Amino acid sequence: xxxxxxxxxxxxxxxxxxxxxxxxxxxxxxxxxxxxxxxxxxxxxxxxxxxxxxxxxxxxxxxxxxxxxxxxxxxxxxxxxxxxxxxxxxxxxxxxxxxxxxxxxxxxxxxxxxxxxxxxxxxxxxxxxxxxxxxxxxxxxxxxxxxxxxxxxxxxxxxxxxxxxxxxxxxxxxxxxxxxxxxxxxxxxxxxxxxxxxxxxxxxxxxxxxxxxxxxxxxxxxxxxxxxxxxxxxxxxxxxxxxxxxxxxxxxxxxxxxxxxxxxxxxxxxxxxxxxxxxxxxxxxxxxxx
Length: 290
Hints:
Blueprint: H1 3-12, E1 23-24, E2 29-33, E3 39-45, E4 53-54, H2 58-66, E5 69-72, H3 80-91, H4 109-119, H5 131-140, H6 152-158, E6 165-167, H7 171-179, H8 183-194, H9 198-214, H10 217-223, H11 232-255, E7 260-265, H12 275-281, E8 285-288
């Protein structure tokens, strides 16, 4: 599913440039209101796109301008060197591992062989690399370098001006989530990524972008129940657990009176385990305003 591209774009913080005309969009936005007069906003972003996006509608712009603090997943997306160094450090296995082809079921090995050939790697290239890192490396190989540069997260950060930009996690923490996965779940991650062909993945990416541009949260919520996030253990770590932790950070920002503008991946807004639902369950009034 399109989570493949989203996952890699935010985890590896790719750098690039693009000169294509912006695509119009009407992304989803929510207002948060607390009983004590606290105010904030939830803005669902998309981490990558094949062209710039006209994400700042009048409603989104007004909310962003009214905010005193911007909350994002990763604050310094442009520091690719630091992210790469962290990835290299965490990716290195501290114990001997079998060849990558031996870490997956026999029926999945032809797909791995094809992916290795497409990406220009050999099985032996991953002998000292943990399985999660090999999965992300293969998923990233061959992706358009413009995609992450066009991510809306970057645009929101650039629009912050002199206001503080606070990260909910940071790249080191995000990569650490993968590094902390048990080996079985790392292999499930690799297998799930192998099941997404390049052609199908590109079609899913285009579909997700179209859903985001329309603010179609029902369709986005359906996507969060497929592919990687259909695995209960991976879902608990990569989706539900993160949303719970972010909810606490958002509530703290609301209580401080900083009127936070929270800009994170739109998938994290979806369904009963999304941020709007979690904040509503904590007594906040959460209203979709776009």
